[in-house]
Amino acid sequence: MNAQSKRGSPAKYKGVLLALFLSLCTVHIALANDWSLKDKDGTHYKLSELKGKWVLVNFWAPWCEPCLQEMPGLDTLQKQHKDLLVIGVAVMYRKNQEVMDAVRSTSVSYPIVLGNEDIASDFGEMKGMPTSFLYSPSGRLIGHHDGPLTQADIEQAIAQKPGSAELFTH
User: Fold this and answer.
1) What is the pLDDT of residue 104?
2) Among 22, 42, 106, 156, which lies 20 to 30 A Cα-Cα from 70?
3) In CATH, what number is assigned to the domain containing residue 108?
4) Beta sheet of 141-146, edge-to-edge order
């Protein structure tokens, strides 16, 4: 018996791999369209339950200086706009304490999720940190932005002013 007959035919595995890939794509689309996140305090946030609010999901890392510099502005933004919810998702950290120390040092009050790379991949491609995803009050993904954002950037996008489309790409 040769090695290939022990393993099975390559065509058989291609079909299995294709089925697995398609099922993963379906899961990814379902998660991206109606994600659910649990913050460090145990509160659950589900996109479909946040209708009527703008939602900014901000992925950050405790070692990322631009991320930490961006956070106080995001906190101020949420405090000034009751129709906006910012959710910070920490990724790429070794210990939860790193995240907690970063949150304490930036004094943010918006929800923080102790995330991981699996949660990040459910949202889509990220080219670096920070990366933010903006959702309209209807729950539609406006787009994502790689890199830091200012309070003015987000206010421009929420007001749907000309030029804001370049901030959030699909």
Assistant:
1) 96
2) 42
3) 3.40.30.10
4) 112-114, 84-90, 54-60, 131-135, 141-146
